[in-house]
Specification:
mainly alpha, Serine Threonine Protein Phosphatase 5, Tetratricopeptide repeat, 131 residues, elongated
Amino acid sequence: MKFRYTKYLLWFTLGAIISLVVYTRFFSEKIVDNWQHLHHQAHIALHNEKYEHVIEICDQAIKADTSPDNRYLIYVKKAKALNKLHRYEEALKSADLAVTIYPKKEEAYLVKVDALFTLGAEEELTTILNQ
């Protein structure tokens, strides 16, 4: 009879430990792979059409990681969000930064073409499409 509630206490303690580990892994701002966390948040926010939030997250991610691969992805996401907010000049700058990192990858060019087409910059658009 004494040990009746002991197993519940053990299960509760185990649940608390698991919750703590999960919380620190996925929700803490001081996790080792902070960039991956920010990249995932930016992806979700872009999908949910929260474009201002995407821009804030991308700015944080750019400061958090200096890896060229990661910065390229973030600049592209930021440019996509800026295009959706009709801030085409800023989108072009972000896309240009991505292109300078990886000139052979096409995703940054697609974002750039979208902005140039909307702005009506036919000469620049033709130059990019001919590359």
